Backbone:
């Protein structure tokens, strides 16, 4: 039987050229986030199935790769439902594992705790450009900070990282789930309808305000409420001070302090940010995860035509594990999409030293081999990248391949008995 050499659908092999870029980007990310006080952690790729199905992951809970029980615990003949067969699953994001980790180790961690976590996650999703079934996520989170300092730090750390990777002219779209709910309440919608309304609202960038209005009316919501709701978005679009305009309209429905805190986030980021990105208030931003409780944000890049990261505040998740809520906020970079854009733009990893290939003819004496290895080691200590390889019969083709990999110089070593 011939084995299948292709990766499983939705997963991919990573060739050296891409791996070099991935390693470089990971280095920039870790270095930048360390400068903001974030510390690296790691969690297992497998989580208890009950944790993954805790009604916090939204649509992602339908995409879990589930793991069968093993050994004596797997009793196929007695199984009546899925719960009898499954006890674990591959994590679909890094937030649920982080919250479990924090709940287990809070007494050993500083407060607030600033965490950086990078690792693969898995979703049984439909593969498409920039979306895979196995992919790397890169999250920073702050737990234990109730004030808006968390949001300010997360936005600045994320945008600084993207800037260092060469990205320009992108947007950070920002909103607040409390503002979303206040807009719906002001318009006269029932609280039980909020989730369905927000799902429709989330389509605004695809179907426009007329499309959203039509969907809401077709769903049976009162025309008076729908029109009042649409008027808010039209007013925001026409206003030169959109946050002030909107919060003034819905002030009776906003919890105390939300307006001031939200404006402070915007003002603080604007005061120190560079000119390589734009901070935009977007009242149509919803974010799909049901665990968000406050500020939400998203990275919009024109080159990709969609989101390249996002996050928000999730103050109720730790309480699901401990019974006591802990303020928490996080931001995730779309790592795979960033790598895709860098590769499509022909990104080259900056190098301090040269890439030099040492090509040795077969049959080199032990003494000569030791000399070559010592010379290679000395060059590496100077900061150069040295590849030591046997010389192929087709030396020209070998050099062409190495040149394509970025090697800019070659040194050849032959058997001493031959006069070259």
Residues:
């Amino acid at each position: 039987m011939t084995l299948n050499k292709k990766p499983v659908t939705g997963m991919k092999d990573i060739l050296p050229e891409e791996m070099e870029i991935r390693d470089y980007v990971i280095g920039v990310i870790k270095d930048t986030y360390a400068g903001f006080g974030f510390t690296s952690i790691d969690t297992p790729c497998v989580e208890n199935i009950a944790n993954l199905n805790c009604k916090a992951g939204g649509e992602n809970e339908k995409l879990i790769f589930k793991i069968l029980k093993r050994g004596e615990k797997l009793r196929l003949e007695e199984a009546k439902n899925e719960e009898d067969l499954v006890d674990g699953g591959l994590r679909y994001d890094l937030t649920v594992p982080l919250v479990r980790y924090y709940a287990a180790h809070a007494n050993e961690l500083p407060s607030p705790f600033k965490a950086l976590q990078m690792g693969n996650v898995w979703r049984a999703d439909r593969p498409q450009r920039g979306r895979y079934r196995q992919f790397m996520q890169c999250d920073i989170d702050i737990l234990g900070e109730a004030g808006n300092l968390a949001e300010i730090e997360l936005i600045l750390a994320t945008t600084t990282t993207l800037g260092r990777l060469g990205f320009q002219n992108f947007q950070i779209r920002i909103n607040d789930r409390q503002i979303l709910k206040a807009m719906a309440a002001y318009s006269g919608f029932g609280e039980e309808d909020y989730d369905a309304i927000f799902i429709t609202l989330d389509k605004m960038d695809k179907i426009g305000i007329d499309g959203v209005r039509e969907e809401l009316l077709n769903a049976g919501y009162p025309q008076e409420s729908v029109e009042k709701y649409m008027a808010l978005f039209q007013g925001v679009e026409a206003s030169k001070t959109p946050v002030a305009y909107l919060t003034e309209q819905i002030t009776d429905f906003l919890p105390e302090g939300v307006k001031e805190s939200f404006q402070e986030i915007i003002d603080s980021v604007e005061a120190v940010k560079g000119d390589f990105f734009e901070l935009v208030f977007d009242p149509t931003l919803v974010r799909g995860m049901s665990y968000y409780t406050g500020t939400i944000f998203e990275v919009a890049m024109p080159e990709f035509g969609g989101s390249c990261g996002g996050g928000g505040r999730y103050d109720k998740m730790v309480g699901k594990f401990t019974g006591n809520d802990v303020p928490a906020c996080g931001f995730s970079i779309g790592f795979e999409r960033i790598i895709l854009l860098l590769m499509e733009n022909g990104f080259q990893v900056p190098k301090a030293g040269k890439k030099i290939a040492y090509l040795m003819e077969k049959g080199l004496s032990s003494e000569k081999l030791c000399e070559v290895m010592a010379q290679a080691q000395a060059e590496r200590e100077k900061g150069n990248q040295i590849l030591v390889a046997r010389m192929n019969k087709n030396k020209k083709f070998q050099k062409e391949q190495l040149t394509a990999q970025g090697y800019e110089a070659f040194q050849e070593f032959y058997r001493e008995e031959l006069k070259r």
